[in-house]
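Hey team,

Sharing the Integrase zinc-binding domain-containing protein run so nobody has to redo it. Sequence (318 residues) first:
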Amino acid sequence: MNATCNIRSTNYSLNQTYLPSNEDIKQTFKDFKYNQVISCVDYFQASLYSQCHIYSYPYKSKYYHEITNNFPGRLFKYVNIVSLFDGRPFEHEFFLQIARLFPYMKKLTVDNRKAQTNKQCRKSKNENITISEYHHLTLLSLEAAYEDYLDEFLLDTKTYLSNGVNLLANYETLKKQADQHINSLNIKFQEKAVITNKMNEKIIACLQNNLSSTENNSRFISWCRNSFALRVIGTRQFLCDIKFGKPILLYENMYDIYKKIHTETAHGGRDKCLDSLLINYSWFNKDLLQIFLKNCSSCQKRKSILKPMLSKPIIALG
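Structure output:
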């Protein structure tokens, strides 16, 4: 059977145990004798969802989305649109690999807000590093990237970019708007408008009776015990809504989840995003979702089009 495939799926699951292994996937496509089938399965524990990408190689599609540190490699000479996403930092070696394996890449999007761990180490050792080269790149989007990645691409000691590259980088603007909205609330509502990582740890300590004497406030304890519960998933404990048992969407993870769901719903607006959020999460903030939607560059471009345009489905046949 001489066939090709290019399949991508997302699963919002609390349990990593039920994810298929690469060997399971390989057996499913054992009849693809004339093309190698490659799979890549990623689980994002902080946001409690997984993604799976299965494709035949040689890879003939013009795009490759949401590449993680788990990227299996190979040369992709037909791809010119690439996006990178992970909850773990991308180090310089990763970008060297991307530049080498996607030699004709024209558009690159980086979605990662974790600081690079090897940056300071190299700086202290004053190491000379190999420069990653992007000879055909015309658009670089760092809108959802930590500031380290601006340095990664804009310092000529790390990266070579051809002339005329358009740069998009406005994540900090969105973050400031979210912070301004929270700070505009009545002071008694600010702390509980969203659940931050710090608040998450404090609530878990309360539920485990590990609060320090200085934090041992009866009103706070009552609020925690009446609003939240702990669920063990794998080797970690997650904070969930006590009424529905859904995971709490932490403030630091909201942008990633809003962006992913907004993309999956084809930029369909607030109500479609809310429907998906309601199925998978609790304690998400509707006002912050609205701020995100107002800042979506794709939606803004659609609004600027005066004449309606007919959309055509895009089907990847390999």
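The chain has twelve helices and twelve strands.

Ping me if you want the raw files.
A.
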